[in-house]
């Protein structure tokens, strides 16, 4: 298998369970370091898929890449800023990531419905490098 995303960092929202966790795993298989996310640390357990977000992170790291677990509401600017800082700190720990990979890309996002934390839509979007 080619590792086309070697050295990139992917932030997959809603990756504590369901389609988000499948996408996070696939990105890791392609060589991306993956930031896994859910609303709370315990959210994956509520749906019976993992004990907690830490277990999701361990599954990703078992694929030979770095991972960080972040929590928060992606609709909250302050929470997004905090998550971004945590994700960017992973870059310094990812010794195999080239110094030129300063952006978080590709960004893979699943959008939760307003009434439910379960993802409803997924897309890939490149991020700015500035």
Question: Can you describe what's shown?
Answer:
It is a single chain. With 130 residues, this protein is α/β, with parallel strands linked by helices. The protein has a single domain, classed as Rossmann fold (3-Layer(aba) Sandwich), CATH 3.40.50. 32% of the residues lie in helices and 22% in strands. The chain is built from four helices and five strands, in the order E-H-E-H-H-E-H-E-E. The chain has a five-stranded mixed β-sheet with strand order 3-2-1-4-5, with helices on both faces. Helix 1 packs parallel to helix 3 (53-61).
Mean of residue pLDDT?
78
Kindly give the count of domains: 1
State which percent range the strand residues make up.
15-25%
N-end to C-end Cα span: 31 Å
Helix content: 25-40%
The CATH architecture term is 3-Layer(aba) Sandwich
Structure class: alpha/beta
Oligomer type: single chain
H/E element string?
Answer: EHEHHEHEE
Radius of gyration: 13 Å
CATH class: Alpha Beta
Strand tally, please?
A: 5
What sort of overall outline do the alpha carbons produce when their principal axes are compared? globular
CATH topology annotation: Rossmann fold
What would CATH call the homologous superfamily?
A: NAD(P)-binding Rossmann-like Domain
Question: What count of helical segments does DSSP give?
Answer: 4
Please specify the SSE layout and strand pairing.
Blueprint: E1 9-12, H1 18-29, E2 33-38, H2 43-46, H3 53-61, E3 67-71, H4 77-93, E4 107-112, E5 119-125
Parallel strand pairs: 1-2, 1-4, 2-3
Antiparallel strand pairs: 4-5
Helix pairs in contact: 1-3
């Amino acid at each position: 298998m080619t590792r086309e995303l070697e050295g990139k960092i992917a932030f997959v929202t809603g990756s504590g369970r369901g389609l988000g966790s499948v996408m996070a795993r696939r990105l890791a298989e392609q060589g991306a370091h993956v930031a896994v996310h859910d609303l709370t640390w315990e959210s994956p357990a509520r749906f019976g898929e993992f004990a907690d977000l830490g277990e999701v992170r361990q599954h990703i790291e078992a694929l030979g890449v770095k991972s960080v677990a972040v929590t928060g509401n992606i609709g909250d600017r302050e929470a997004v800023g905090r998550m971004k800082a945590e994700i960017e700190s992973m870059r310094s720990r990812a010794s195999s990531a080239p110094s030129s990979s300063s952006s978080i890309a590709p960004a893979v996002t699943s959008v939760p419905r307003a009434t439910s934390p379960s993802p409803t839509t997924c897309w890939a979007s490149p991020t700015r490098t500035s």
